[in-house]
Amino acid sequence: MTCRDVFLGTHSIECGESDPTRIITHTLRLDEAARGFEMFKNKEDDCEKVVLKP
After folding, report:
1. pTM flag (> 0.85)
2. Which residues neighbour 36 within 8 Å (Cβ) at sequence distance 6 or greater?
3. Helix H segments across the chain?
């Protein structure tokens, strides 16, 4: 992944061309990061993408 890829991805989200929320399967608190990593690694509860909130 390059800086250009990140820019293009961010731009498409900002312009409404893509909706990243459709791939988010779990939202956890920041202090639950280790649990989220394990869930993703082990594909527990059909985990595809974890978002951490402060």
Report:
1. no
2. 26, 28, 47, 50, 52
3. 3-14, 33-41
49 Cβ contact list (under 8 Å, min separation 6): 23, 24, 25, 26, 40
- Residue 44, classed as helix, strand or coil, is helix
Question: Which secondary-structure segment (H or E) carries 29?
Answer: strand 26-29
Residue 44 corresponds to which tokens in the numbers above? 């527990």
Q: SS3 for 46?
A: helix
Q: Please give the average per-residue pLDDT across 17-24, as a whole number.
A: 88
Domain ranges of the chain: 20-54
Report the C-alpha gap between 5 and 10 in whole angstroms: 8
